Amino acid sequence: MSYTNLKYQLKIKIYKDTPSFGPGVVEIMELVEETGKLSEAYRIMGLSSSKGWKIIKRAEDDLGFPLIISVVGGNGGGSSELTKEGIDILNRYQSFINEVKIDADKAFKKYF
């Protein structure tokens, strides 16, 4: 039996009580950094505003701090940015994931 075409996928979430901060929240946050608009992040991801807001709110409630601050209105319809805590946890999560992927790649190659 040949395992040469096999791949793997990791989906890691961090949380206090409810698995809430993971790839979806990270993608929203990265897009907010890129575009400066929460609504644009939702649009790019194909999420409704209510669905996207629920994803962020669930993570913020579990973590105990805000991830994104939005300013309503103004020129261009308002803006959004990551909070200081949001930037910190995003950077830590990305570093953690990068390390885990290195170790996971080694283990995958060893067994498959």
TrEMBL record:
Top-level taxon: Bacteria
InterPro entries hit by this protein: Molybdate_resp_trans_reg (IPR051815), WH-like_DNA-bd_sf (IPR036388), WH_DNA-bd_sf (IPR036390)
> What name goes with this protein?
ModE family transcriptional regulator
